[in-house]
Automatic annotation (TrEMBL):
NCBIfam families in the record: PBP4 (TIGR00666)
Keyword Protease (UniProt): yes
Family: Belongs to the peptidase S13 family.
A GO term for molecular function: serine-type D-Ala-D-Ala carboxypeptidase activity
Keywords: Carboxypeptidase, Hydrolase, Protease
EC identifiers of the protein: 3.4.16.4
GO biological process terms on file: peptidoglycan metabolic process; proteolysis
Name under which the protein is recorded: D-alanyl-D-alanine carboxypeptidase/D-alanyl-D-alanine-endopeptidase
């Protein structure tokens, strides 16, 4: 009897199809399928990792290829694809962030008798020149002094400054800047909550390099421990910020003929940073402050004096997506929460994000969304869901703004090529990929639009997790795109 059971078991196993994580559409011309599957299964650099590839027709939405496409993986900055789509849908391409100036006093005797309030409402693009413009408007109203306090109001959002899974080691990095409704940026890359540090070698070896901080404020203290060395030495500069302070330490060596290096560092207390810039603008424009400076809130009985409006959301999409700006992503999450539920928090924002994505036909019940930027290793999404999103939103009125915001392969202009400027620089892929990059420790991703070898528009998503060497991810993505487009591998 046991012998018959044994042979019956073998017979059943023989008839039962073995599990295959590859789905290939019955489209004869898509003959890259076998090569791509073989590459994903046999590439030594992928051994021990988890990879997923999803390909759809951009015209029909048909799933042409799916390798682990239904496996939830960490998307890194590919999460920004969902944030951008939801923000454009909910807020609209014309949406602007306002920064307001209020008072609880009155203009008289050539000045303002009462407190002056700077109310931030999330604008991540505020520059020193914008604060100057606000100060000039106040002076044009006859305000030459303020007999009262200068107060910064950041209550448009909650007071939680970091997303739940941001590593403590990222706190001083530009991509780990604090999220506040009142913030500022050093330049038109709009890295809100940061300052820029320019480091130029000294004219003689063994001397400290020249360090300049932008914007220039007494708020920051720089400890210059770095040394200029001969060209035979390597650049070993390191910039750090002491926790809980705005004390910066620059150490290491810089070769004497090195061009000026530009680095961005997050600041401590972004609300106070923005308020300090406005205080400086008041002083520079001849408005004397007779009172204290601090953080508070605008009283109910107050008068709006003037305001500044940001660039349109459609314009903000360019630095946000092309430069993969984490701060913009988290600001948009909180702004969606504020607009939809009157609560500028991550929890309210993520809920708003989910509801909008559902409206766009995204099966969010299969996703784990922890933030808007993708900095969390706990975000999870399927490659098939990413290609579904990218297919569905083609029908949206704002799709042109979304598509325009994606980095373009091999175009050496940071506001065109963005994070793809120095990738796919040779062959037929140059200029023919519009896609969002993603990178975390042991994670690499790339999702977007291109054409296959027949000239048909396709949508693709590549998610690579548990990589042993991070640098391998980008080359693997190149190889996969070459197999998809039949470019030379």
């Amino acid at each position: 009897m046991q012998k018959y059971v044994f042979f019956l078991t073998l017979f059943i196993l023989f008839l039962t199809p073995q599990f295959d994580n590859t789905t290939e559409a019955a489209v004869p011309q898509q003959n890259y399928n076998n090569k791509l599957t073989e590459y994903l299964r046999t590439n030594s650099k992928l051994k021990g990792s988890i990879s997923a590839v999803s390909i759809r027709s951009a015209s029909t939405g048909q799933l042409l290829y799916s390798y682990n496409g239904e496996t939830r993986l960490t998307p890194a900055s590919n999460m920004k694809l969902f944030t951008a789509a939801a923000a454009l849908e909910l807020l609209g391409p014309q949406y602007r962030f306002d920064t307001e100036i209020w008072t609880d006093g009155a203009i008289k005797w050539n000045g303002l008798v009462g407190n002056l309030y700077l109310k931030g409402k999330g604008d991540p693009t505020l520059l020193s020149k914008d604060f100057d413009q606000l100060a000039k408007r106040l002076k044009s109203k006859g305000i030459h002094y303020v007999c009262g306090d200068l107060v910064g109001d950041d209550t448009w959002y909650d007071d939680v400054r970091y997303s739940i899974d941001l590593p403590w080691s990222d706190e001083a990095e530009y991509y780990g800047a604090q999220i506040s409704a009142l913030t500022a940026a050093p330049d038109e890359d709009y890295d809100a909550g940061t300052i820029r540090i320019d480091i130029t070698p000294a004219k003689k070896e063994n001397e400290h390099p020249i360090i300049k901080v932008f914007p220039k404020l007494d708020l920051f203290k720089v400890h210059n421990l770095a040394t200029t060395v001969s060209n035979s030495e390597k650049n070993s500069l390191k910039i750090s910020r002491e926790h809980g302070t705005n004390e910066l330490i620059v150490e290491g060596e810089i070769p004497i003929e090195t061009e000026t290096l530009k680095e961005w560092v997050s600041v401590w207390d972004t609300s106070n940073y923005a308020l300090s810039l406005f205080e400086k603008s008041l002083k520079d424009n001849g408005i004397k402050l007779i009172g204290k400076t601090g953080i508070g809130s605008v009283p109910i009985k107050s008068e709006l004096l003037t305001k500044h409006s940001s660039i349109k959301l459609s314009e903000l999409m360019v630095p946000f997506m092309k430069l993969s700006n984490n701060t913009h992503a988290e600001v948009l999450i909180k702004e969606m929460g504020k607009v939809k539920g009157n609560e500028g928090s991550w929890s309210a924002g993520i809920q708003a994000d989910i509801e909008v994505l559902e409206k766009l036909g995204v099966p969010v019940q299969k996703m784990v969304i922890r933030d808007g930027s993708g900095v969390s290793h706990m975000n999870l999404v399927e490659a098939d869901i990413i290609t579904k999103l990218l297919y569905n939103i083609q029908a949206a009125k704002w799709f042109g703004d979304f598509y325009h915001s994606l980095p373009v392969s091999g175009v050496n202009d940071k506001l065109v090529g963005g994070t793809l400027a120095k990738r796919f620089t040779n062959g037929g892929l140059k200029g023919n990929i519009n896609a969002k990059t993603g990178s975390l420790t042991n994670v690499s991703s790339l999702s977007g639009y291109t054409k296959d070898k027949y000239g048909d528009n396709i949508i693709f998503s590549i998610l690579l997790n548990h990589l042993k060497e991070n640098q391998n991810g980008k080359q693997i993505e190149v190889d996969i795109l070459k197999l998809i487009t039949d470019d030379e591998l």
